[in-house]
Design goal:
Length: 134
């Protein structure tokens, strides 16, 4: 119920930003989306295509931004190949990366990579008493 309400607000322009799960990236068609940001790196090229497919529809231009970490590097080459095949400019270093092993690709397609939560480091504050003037 709440999901339908939020989706309707997005469609009517009352909400300009929609944060979606992987499921939402596949199931709903939105018109007029011009930017998709992948905060969590897609586990497969199929997932990447579904996610960015929300933007640039019907001949319109669109932009997809994907954040990645060093842990995602082995998957990056496959995504870079998809981008290049669709006519995007891709940095050469992405295309030169080692491809992911087939068995690992199959494993990721069935079970998502586990991630360590990002935690803020607690900062220790040190107070130094300033001697008082006599």
């Amino acid at each position: 119920m709440q999901r339908d309400h939020v989706v309707e607000k997005f469609r009517t322009g009352k909400v300009w930003v929609l944060i979606c799960t992987e499921l939402m990236a596949r199931g709903i068609d939105f018109k007029g989306v011009n930017t998709v940001i992948n905060y969590d790196f897609p586990q497969t090229t199929v997932s990447y295509i579904h996610r960015i497919g929300r933007t640039g529809r019907a001949g319109r231009s669109g932009r997809a931004i994907t954040f990645f970490t060093e842990e995602d590097a082995e998957q990056l080459r496959a995504i870079a190949n998809v981008m290049k095949a669709s006519g995007c400019e891709v940095a050469d270093w992405m295309l030169r990366m080692q491809p992911m092993r087939k068995d690992k690709r199959k494993q990721l397609a069935t079970k998502a990579k586990s991630r360590v939560p990002i935690r803020k480091k607690q900062r220790k504050e040190v107070w130094v008493a300033k001697p008082q003037d006599p």
